């Protein structure tokens, strides 16, 4: 699925710090025309790319190239990671010498995830550079709520100093590309079972059958699918489905002219308000009405 990051013309990209404790992640498989990089500061995050799960610990710098399909599938409860996005126009202007031609790569044929676990000195430099560019950014709660760019809402990224941000993104892009040589490539990759890939595909299509029907559609028992999915993806199948539903709840809720928690919860696939409330409270530590009122 092609994702529109809705970046205004005055911005060459965006940057924000995603945190599991308050971020609504983009869980569906997607791609975009921009280059994305993540820097894991704390905890772990996991992506599925080309049928394999990649798990990244702290100090990992990872690259998701334009048109490269990727899916965030799991994060530790304490995960914090910077998400930086660069427009193609910025890359074209910034990368003029042979040393940086690799940044112009079209990721549609990329086999895996280019990544480096940075040495402590390089990691500290990149992290501090990112932190400095966040000084005039929007409130972290807002950026996390909107996944940085606005999930199915009229929100779009903004920054108090667009010129300063653009100059910083130029420097950050080149710094990170050079820094990839300072560490080691991770080997923590799991090739997903075909039935797990089938379940991910069905869930991404918003098929809201119960887990038994999903298992039968994949041609295996529910017990086998649940066990294999948990072992390979790193999160229980039911919890993964609930994360997708929460993402869709926010999308549906924001699209409504007259806001209704119940309608949005049902539209997202929850079977009852009680189920929605239980999943929501587990994810955010408070009920939906209180959470929305606080925002």
Notes on the structure:
It is a single chain. This protein folds into 3 domains: 13-189, Sandwich (Jelly Rolls); 193-234; 236-295, Arc Repressor Mutant, subunit A, CATH 1.10.10. The protein has a 5-stranded antiparallel sheet with strand order 1-7-2-5-8. Strands 6-3-4-9 form a 4-stranded antiparallel sheet, with no helix packed on it. With 295 residues, the protein is α+β, with helices and mostly antiparallel strands. The model has no long low-confidence stretch (mean pLDDT 89). The longest helix is centred in the last third of the chain and has 19 residues, at 237-255. The protein has helices at 88-94, 120-133, 140-145, 162-179, 194-204, 211-218, 222-233, 237-255, 261-267, 273-284, 288-294, and strands at 13-19, 35-42, 45-49, 52-56, 60-64, 71-75, 80-86, 114-117, 189-191.
